[in-house]
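tool_call: predict_structure(chain=1)
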Amino acid sequence: MSLDPSAFPPLRDPPARLCFLATQTPVAQEAYQRLVDRYGDCAFDDAEAVICLGGDGFMLETLRRATGRYIPVYGMNCGSVGFLMNPFDEDDLPARLAVAQLATLYPLIMRAVCGDGTEHEAYALNDVFLFRQTRQAAKIRIDIDGRERMPELICDGVLVSTPAGSTAYNLSAHGPIVPLSGNLLPLTPISAFRPRRWRGALLPSTAEVTFTVLEAEKRPVAAVADFTEVRDVVSVTVRENRDQSVTVLFDPGQNLSERIIAEQFSA
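tool_result:
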């Protein structure tokens, strides 16, 4: 994801037609019913804004659904971490939406080729990662913009993250947190064995990354783009897709850029 040049402008008018979506947990369902009773509800395609009730996982599902539809999404945390969410508060929702700050996010696009020749395409707002399918470590070659950069990485896996996703799996794999305005994509190994000291790289957001699985029959590898998993891949290409975008709404002072900065100073 990259930061839109007009990042975080306020909405001019509060959206009147709201669509409420909630995960199936009791907390989210109860919140959903109260909010619908209070503010009404409309179909997703007719909405001026979508209100997502749940955690980060459900928020990602909702953002994926909204990508390319020009419908802003405002999340309220009814889950656990809620990194992409705003605090839950059912009062004065239209007023909060009127002053919300906007972040325009761009997904990664993954194109994977399997050993049987089939091809698969999927989008990711968090990350794309490759991971070994068996007890044996994966062997992967890495090319950046058509140039070989890593002849052989022996590892459990490797991932490319968006800046917003850099605080998720990427951070757990000891990758760097990237500010939204950095226009960078972290490339991070997962439990690298050789080269043991390689900690990954920061790539420009324009880069195209190609992973080639070495010894694919002996060391099978799966590829995952957020919610889409493809098994027995032999090559995977990842790049940022500027043809699609999604807009996320945040309360003032709680925008995603600020959260990413704050995360770097947390314990």
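agent: Helices lie at 26-39, 56-66, 93-98, 169-172, 256-263. Proceeding to next step.
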